[in-house]
Amino acid sequence: MNTDTLIKKIEDQINSFEADVDVTEFGIVQSIGDGIARVSGLSQCKASEMIEFENGSVGLALNLEEDTVGIIVLGDYLKIKEGDKAKRTGKILSLPVGADVIGRVVDPLAAPVDGKGDIKTDTEQLIERSAPGVMTREPVSVPMQTGIKVVDALVPIGRGQRELIIGDRQTGKTAVAIDAIINQKGQNMKCVYVAIGQKRSKVMRIVQKLEEAGAMEYTTVVLAGASDSSALQYIAPYSGVAIAEYFLDKGEDVLIVYDDLSKHAAAYREISLLLRRPPGREAYPGDVFYLHSRLLERACRLNADNGGGSITALPIIETQGGDVSAYIPTNVISITDGQIFLEAGLFNKGIRPAISVGLSVSRVGGAAQAKAMKKTAGPMKLALAQYRELESFAQFGSDLDPQTKKALDHGSKSVELLKQKQYSPIIMSKQVASIYALNNELLSDIPLEKISEWETGFYAFLDASKSDLLSDIDAGWKPETVEALKQAIAEFNDTFNA
What we know:
- By secondary structure, this protein is of the alpha/beta class.
- Helix content is about 40%, strand content about 20%.
- It is built from 15 helices and 16 strands.
- Helix 10 (about 370-395) packs across helix 12 (about 430-440).
- It is elongated.
- The protein starts with a helix and ends with a helix.
């Protein structure tokens, strides 16, 4: 090989040489404590970027200060020491999502905690994402049946709505949400239950109930227990909605329950105070409203051009002594499209679910109700409002005229009929049938204490011999359907009274 050829070959190799240089920005941990690491040297760090520590732990950059970055550690922070290296990953916090998460219990980083093996998926979803814009949305008009008579009749929820469940502790808030999940069986709806700051034993009991009801076939449980760090409790609802958005993007309907956002706000307050952010009212940081608004705005119903899927959100808020005017409750009430208010007084009287019809409201209203239910439920709301007025008046013990006695009797039967056992949702057509019987005074001969027995027997009668009628009620509210229903009620009443 002559010299010129050799020089040409060397030149070609120099020109085609590509240096494979991996530039990584490292920082040094200046201080660590209470799950918060302060790291210097990460001058190019982005907000919400994932930071990897020397021991393999992962953190989330929340405070970008002049000299240091405030990082919340997602996992065990006790193994991190001052002087350890921390490197940027260049990735915004995301988690693996896919069809395999259905039926599983996962932590907020989508790692399984149910002992059923790994979750196989290649898709990743950002846990923080902008809510869909106004032009991509569709008005809420498709019912989301909960199977709870008092909700479906008087506080209807539509697919894509955000309905707050609010009340004191131990009033049955979680029970309403779990019944709604159980009722989605066969409704072509995925469900996500996010447990924030709950006892693990309680969550495992809920999972067991869902399995018994066959609801885990379409449900994912995201668990950030009371023993988990505030950082994991803070990201849990965002992880839950990221899983829901994976199915939304496929054009599917999803129901998501946040249980509960009071504990979520408390976890965020703890993180903010440790990061030395200025405290505001009740020591919550100034952006605590944004904390929940950016989460709940991600619930929506998309139009056909954008896939036509929906996310229906049921956030839960715990009040103290029934005070709905406290800071966090008023914030969330102003974000949501209505609230289901559970009263301790009703619960203690044995009225379960203990939903206060007067204080509960759905801002979507009849737009998200089936035609049959819309026609039937109207008079019931009026009767219950009238009953509450007369009930307080009747306590004075004065002689009551026949009209008032009749209204009181009708109201007490309405309250009795709206009682319902936990974990036993009722299909819409059966609800319509029983409410129609009540509204049209077809239960006037049935004593108050026999209403529950009548209802159980009536549903069994409809299942056994009137299944076509139930299908007709689902299909619409035609005059011939109403006539057939009237005859069915009369037929059953004859046998029941006999």
